[in-house]
Write a structure and sequence with these properties.
The protein has about 375 residues and is of the alpha/beta class. It is about 45% helix and about 20% strand. The strands form two sheets. Strands 7, 8, 9, 10, 11, 12, 13 and 15 form an eight-stranded mixed β-sheet that branches. The longest helix is centred in the N-terminal third of the chain and has 18 residues. It starts with 7 loop residues before the first strand and ends with a strand.
């Protein structure tokens, strides 16, 4: 609810970048006229240009993410701070630290598991004490999968072991920022796994409950009929975390996450391409060459985004019952990601939500309230069977 001791309800950090600009437009389009919004970034001129775009009135705050003092000052002025400035392993920690210290709700678009685990280890306890909600992965990573799994679980029996598999199909184009973040994750896979093991030691499954990620394997999936490739992305980790935080997922919950295609050749091509990208990420010269092809600040054109789409289908079962659901929308990486982050920020700022604090997920912190907002914005949640 509104807090008159702070200057703003929501500040968007990184508002002048490619993705940040889309989020700024979405935030201003969906906010109520009384919302106190501000755009933050390094360039006053670019902020002024962004603030002149259509939508509700916004303020401008000049801030440098490399200056922890300015970030702390920014966090203290707002109730909710959303950031699109990545890679988050490089630029994110001071922002999370400032929000945890100030009791300010934090949101980002990270797809970097190591960053999420590190911020839990460094800042979760402090955020619990101050009441800050730290919510990562508020875009296509990982809102459709997190809220879609929760929506699927809600259709199944309570207090029984549950299994949910998510099958992702999509068409889209990557921006320079997304490429940079993905390469950063791939280059640090070994370190990321070690960090995850440390987090699991300090944050075990809740007493009497078990949460698992099904690693799966490539090939023809009998349940869906598609050819699938396991996706070792942040998404299954976020779904598993929601299952640890929410008892509704049952005493024993298993989630599997797969990229789905119609035929074996497409699946094989995806596997080869993913393997080649991981290998290239280990070589600094190769990483630099890839980022030159898609530099920071670049992204798909409006026409490319109009042609893009996503559909995530979930197969859930437990206690002798089963269900098939689907979450679907338009351009996953940018247009819909902008909708997801902007609606999550508005949800944290203005909706009646359960009492949570510390590092939480979109499902545990916002759940049905955010789902309702996304449905009103055109992203569908459907029970198919």
């Amino acid at each position: 609810m509104p807090d008159d001791t702070r200057d703003f309800d929501i500040v968007l950090l990184g508002a002048t970048g490619f993705t940040g600009g889309l989020v700024a437009d979405a935030l201003r389009a969906h906010a109520s006229p009384g919302a106190r919004l501000a755009l933050a970034g390094r360039s006053p001129a670019r902020l002024e240009a962004a603030s002149a775009r259509p939508g509700v009135e916004v303020g401008c705050v000049t801030v440098d993410v490399t200056d922890p003092g300015s970030i702390r000052s920014l966090a203290a002025r707002t109730r909710v701070l959303a950031t699109t400035v990545g890679p988050y392993l490089v630029h994110g920690d001071p922002v999370v630290a400032a929000c945890a210290e100030a009791g300010t709700d934090y949101l980002d678009l990270t797809g970097e598991p190591e960053f999420v685990d590190l911020t839990y280890l460094r800042h979760h306890a402090r955020a619990v004490r101050t009441g800050a909600r730290l919510v990562h992965a508020c875009g296509f990573d990982s809102v459709p999968h997190d809220l879609g799994a929760q929506f699927t679980v809600a259709q199944l029996l309570e207090d029984v072991p549950l299994v949910v598999h998510g099958y992702v199909r999509m068409s889209g184009t990557l921006s320079g920022g997304t490429v940079a973040s993905a390469l950063e994750v791939m280059a640090r896979l070994r370190i990321g796994r070690a960090t995850q093991r440390i987090r699991r030691q300090v944050e075990p499954d809740p007493p009497g409950r078990t949460v698992r990620i099904d690693p799966g394997r490539p090939g023809r999936d009998r349940a869906s009929g598609w050819w699938v490739l396991p996706m070792p992305t942040i998404d299954p980790l976020v779904v598993a975390e929601s299952a640890r935080l929410l008892p509704r997922y049952g005493p024993d919950f298993t989630y599997g996450h797969f990229l789905a295609s119609e035929g074996p050749l497409a699946a094989a091509g995806l596997a080869v391409g993913a393997g080649a990208l991981v290998a290239a990420a280990q070589v600094p010269a190769a990483r630099r060459a890839i980022t030159r092809l898609r530099p920071a600040g670049s992204g798909p054109s409006p026409e490319q985004r109009r042609r893009s789409w996503f559909a995530v289908r979930f197969h859930g079962s437990g206690g002798g019952t089963s269900v098939v659901t689907e979450v679907a929308g338009g351009d996953p990486g940018y247009s819909e990601t902008a909708t997801m982050l902007s609606q999550a920020a508005l949800c944290l700022a203005f909706d009646d939500l359960p009492e949570t604090a510390g590092q939480v997920t979109t499902a545990s912190a916002m759940g049905p309230a955010l789902r309702s907002r996304l449905q009103a914005a055109g992203i569908s949640f459907t029970v198919l069977a």
